[in-house]
Amino acid sequence: VCAHPAYLAARGIPQRPEILSSFDCIAFEVLGSPRSWTFHEGKEKISIAVRPRLIVSTAEAGIDAAIAGVGITRALSYQVEKAVGRGELKIVLEGFEPPPWPVHIVHHGVRALPLKLRTFRDFVVPRLRERLSRLNNQGGLV
After folding, report:
1. What is the pLDDT of residues 98-125, one digit of tens each?
2. Are 141 and 77 in contact (CB under 8 A)?
């Protein structure tokens, strides 16, 4: 959950998910219901009703709208990593983030792995491990 620093300076920083109904939310249809966002408090899931100011069909559109100061949006950590690093977005409600999603590379495995797939696996696995480790050490995943 993130927003442009100027939007947060003008509207305040939400301390609990329940108060998001008083903020302009930018919902992304693919991650779930655009009118209900799920958070985690400890091991418990909490569903919060939001009133989106804008509903978008891509994460990129939601991120662009948040950078433009339209409101608060939700996206995955890798999708907002650069904007957060540039100071265009600030992460909020970190204590209510869900646990990280596992990343798997799956293949059929019946016979020897084709050279192209083995080359891809050998290229991507260490990079994913390093990136996920770096994201986790920088304050977790969004």
Report:
1. 877 777 777 776 677 788 888 988 998 8
2. yes
